[in-house]
Here is the input.
Amino acid sequence: MNSEAAAALRSVVAPIFRTAGDWRELQKKLAAKGFGLTFRKGHMVLTDIATGVAICTGKFLGTPLKEMSARLGRPQIVALPGGLSGDFLH
Here is the structure.
């Protein structure tokens, strides 16, 4: 992703990450913008909701999983086959 695309993406999703009160709200607001949130190899990953394709990590956006967990609590995740990835348990 080039720097202009990264800046545009951050401008859309950063406010959502900053203002979400819980994991469910975060997912809902991201979905309204066409994004999903999953976990892959221990990283929180922003995805294209229509395709499931990974876009970037939370760290790339400036909101790493550690920071989000400290603010929103530990996410409840169900492991996918292989155990390296997971989705929210809702």
